[in-house]
Amino acid sequence: MSEETGLPPELEAPPEEVKAVLADDMHIATGTREPILEAAGVTMQFGGLRALNDVTMSLKEGEVIGLIGPNGAGKTTFFNCLTGLYTPTSGAVTLRGEQMPQDPSRVTEAGVARTFQNIRLFPSMTARENVLVGRHVRMKQGPISSLLHGPRFRRSEAEAKDRAEKLLAFVGLSRFADELARNLPYGDQRRLEIARALATDPSVLLLDEPTAGMNAQETEATRQLIFAIRDLGVSVVVIEHDTKFIFTLCDRVLVLVQGELLVEGSPDEVRGDPRVIEAYLGAPPEEIEAQLHTGANPASDTVEGES
Ligand SMILES: Nc1ncnc2c1ncn2[C@@H]1O[C@H](COP(=O)(O)OP(=O)(O)O)[C@@H](O)[C@H]1O
Ligand SMILES: [Mg+2]
């Protein structure tokens, strides 16, 4: 147990030397603070249901944005629009000013990775293999060379394995490298999914409820992990219900209610905004205010929906 963070060693933030090596490998950081991922007036209509109405977001390089809002507000739908899973009914999504491809695998290649509200690992593959799957997006390997197992193939395989080890160390899962994903504790599966997403060398990482189902220690460890990811130069958008988690993690917070952006601002601005207190949860204002300040999870009765 660390004296500083109170976390057991396996949940400690990534060691500095692992961070340094990864940052070197991924060489993402530019430090320009330019907008990298932008959504302009995104509307998503499903038949008679308008799940998103005119939502605009601008994520800057090196920034961590939090996206909060009640169940069914459209948060996951927004991620699906950003990553080419859905084509917005209207509006535009751009990455460094270029239109986002309308195809999830090309979105990944372009440098946007995500995790899912419902964990999507390969349960019968080991932790290491799950990370390698993410890595293959980045392997410039022609089919012939793969077939012949030539030197180029062997070299890129070796590099992929090396990176997988580093990523497992980064998320604190080295000890589970050879374990089947389905045997990992739930919180570790979520961390493994993050490692797999990072294996694609993203400039932008979208996390859909990364702490769902986690205990307080695992949640704190995830907060530290996301700070470390930001330090690698990756820009992050996080969906979460846990307001304390979001307010202590993010540079900026967006509140989505019934498909519309209700409020956007710094954690302090959002925390104190009467519209958030009133509309976000629909409970008596005093009660919600108390929850927002103590960080109790006002949506703890949430059950995971399919998304
Ligand atoms: N593919 C879809 N077809 C029809 N309705 C959908 C689809 N995806 C999401 N929705 C609806 O859009 C609304 C927003 O859902 P979602 O984005 O999952 O909310 P959140 O992630 O904020 O809980 C919900 O009413 C949901 O039922
Ligand atoms: Mg959702």
From TrEMBL:
This protein's name: ABC transporter ATP-binding protein
Domain ABC transporter intervals: 37-283
Molecular-function annotations in GO: ATP binding
Biological source species: Pseudonocardia xishanensis
Domain of life: Bacteria
CDD domains, alphabetized: ABC_Mj1267_LivG_branched (cd03219)
Keyword NAD: no
Keywords assigned by UniProt, alphabetized: ATP-binding, Nucleotide-binding, Transport
Signal peptide span: none
InterPro entries referenced in this protein's UniProt entry, alphabetically: AAA+_ATPase, ABC_AA/LPS_Transport, ABC_transporter-like_ATP-bd, BCA_ABC_TP_C, P-loop_NTPase
